[in-house]
Design goal:
two-stranded antiparallel sheet, about 15% strand, globular, Rossmann fold, 9 helices
Length: about 230
């Protein structure tokens, strides 16, 4: 039996599938459905409201504890959240833990201005892809990274960064050297990874429905078995 490691934010966790949003999607979320398709043991590290930093940090920590294992048995699927999110170490009241910050959700205009630009989002996400991709490649771990469905190279609001030669070179380098599932880069290999509205919970909530998670699981399964 192979081993499947998934990580991401609320999209992977299954936010909104159950009436009790504190418990996530459970067996209706795509990590569980994909594990069943692969006949794999599942390790789901995802957590709602987290950042690229969280995904990279916890994935590396997971494997650092398992370096004495045969890591070729693992398949890793990473869904990277919006690049403007970040985390910091919070030791307030002796509660030592990582604190997640979501400028676009927290209503903090100053943070949204500081960390809300498309260029910031791109570079933060791209740097995290290179960090976790290098770690997984160095340890011969099979992996695929999803960048969340955004496309920084298309659309009128992205005209400024689409003309940035440094960003273009970085995109080309990442596409050539890392296993990108789909979403944000122009040459994504899984266009269907970002589902249509009919597989979302509602028009107001873009999180995937149980059917949407089935679509995601089937598409990823098809890709990694091509």
């Amino acid at each position: 039996m192979s081993k499947l490691v998934t990580n991401g934010c609320s999209m992977t966790w299954g936010w909104g599938i159950n009436s009790d949003r504190n418990i996530g999607g459970g067996v209706d979320a795509y990590p569980y459905k994909l594990a069943k398709l692969l006949d794999a043991e599942l390790f789901d590290l995802s957590k709602p409201g987290e950042s690229c930093n969280y995904v990279v940090r916890t994935t590396i920590d997971f494997f650092l504890e398992r370096l004495d294992e045969d890591l070729s048995e693992y398949i890793v699927i990473l869904q990277l959240p919006d690049g403007n999110r970040f985390e910091y170490w919070n030791d307030d009241k002796k509660k030592l833990k990582w604190k997640a910050v979501m400028p676009s959700h927290d209503g903090n205009k100053d943070l949204a201005i500081m960390f809300g630009s498309q260029k910031w989002n791109f570079y933060n996400t791209a740097n995290n892809i290179m960090q976790i991709g290098n770690f997984l490649k160095d340890n011969n771990i099979r992996y695929y990274i999803s960048t969340g469905g955004q496309d920084w190279t298309r659309g009128t609001y992205n005209e400024e960064i689409s003309k940035d030669k440094k960003i273009k070179r970085r995109i080309e380098y990442i596409e050539a050297n890392y296993s990108i599932l789909g979403g944000s880069f122009s040459k994504s290999r899984l266009a269907q990874e970002v589902p249509n509205k009919d597989v979302c919970i509602s028009k107001e909530d873009p999180h995937w429905s149980p059917h949407g998670h089935t679509v995601i699981a089937n598409n990823i399964y098809r890709l990694i078995n091509d």
